[in-house]
Amino acid sequence: MNTNYTAIQLQKFASTFREASKIVSQELRDPDLGEVKVRNLYCGINGIFDTQIARNAVDYVSVQLPTLTGVEALGVVEACGEGVVGLSEGDAVVTTRFPSGYRQWNTAPASYFVKVPDTRPEWLVLASTGVSAYVALKQTGALANGETVAISAAAGGLGHLLVQIAKLHDCRIVGVCGGQTKGEFVRGLGADRVIDYKTESVADVLGTEFKDGLDVAVDTVSGSIFDAFLDNIAVHGRLVVGGAAQDLEGEPEIVTAPRIANKLYYKGASVRGFMNGLLTDHWPDARTWLFERFAAGDIKVTFDEPQFKGLNGVYDAVDRLLSGRSMGKVVVDLS
Question: What region does 188 belong to: left with phi over 0, alpha with psi -120 to 50, or beta?
Fold first, then answer.
């Protein structure tokens, strides 16, 4: 067997992931006690995270250069070290540990991996982005059946799963996205009202049709969409902050406006930060729920249409996600 493999390594800090990293050769080692050696087949793309890592702008990750990159990967166990329990050679596994994604092989503790039924990339999406969507709604958002839920970036990798999970809880769903094609996609997932922010005012639509009516709102964009969600949060409503894509190009936007306390206090509402890495205890139950619903045909995983292959394809995939044109989950075939 070849004793080397290739991976994307961050070598400096720069404004883009492409500029900050390069493909390098790494030594392929056998697993030690409690480790497994995995051949990666697919990786999931997290373009905003990758860009912020390249800029050393992720507060909760201490980056020591050089470092390998990527988070999500699905692969096959090729060898097990002594003492490994629950995994065997030939098992399909998923990891969501940085830096496990953008590499051909990964030798790491068995605890970093979760066994999945087979090597279809759908399991990668469910075990990573799907878990994030479920935990954001159920744990941070305290979602209850029959509530009204608003979702920004509803056609994206996270958003299209948020819509389906909320629909399976018999919720009324408001999906925000840009363009007719994305709107039709989100409507087909079960959204009751789609707001095309390119042709409609999110604030006007919510203020007219859902005034003070959002029980749960999940925002990953920030800016005016966050403001519109906040203005229309319901009594005891929960606004979940899952990201701030609008702030990617610089420091967070500075605004001059009344503090949000009054908007929350008289409604008994709340703004809640969603950080998936702080909620790991809930991941197993989330996976079980998602896997069962997928097997039953209740949840569909949609992949972005362009097909990216190999580590070189990771760069184009990151650019694709950052372009705002992607629809569904962006993955790269590493096989």
Answer: alpha
**36 and 153: one domain?**
no
Confidence of residue 254 (pLDDT cuts 50, 70, 90): confident
> Considering the entire predicted model, what is its pTM?
0.96
Q: pLDDT tens digit string along 139-182?
A: 999 999 999 999 999 999 999 999 999 999 999 999 999 999 99
- Cα–Cα distance, 192 to 205 (Å, whole number): 13
Residues 231 and 306 in one domain: no
DSSP E strands: which ranges in the chain? 4-10, 21-27, 35-44, 67-68, 72-80, 92-95, 105-109, 113-116, 148-151, 172-177, 193-196, 214-219, 233-241, 270-273, 308-309, 331-333
Sheet holding 21-27, edge to edge: 21-27, 4-10, 67-68
Q: How far apart are CA 186 and CA 159, in angstroms?
A: 9
CA–CA separation, 177 and 77 (whole Å): 39
180 plus 271 within the same structural domain: yes
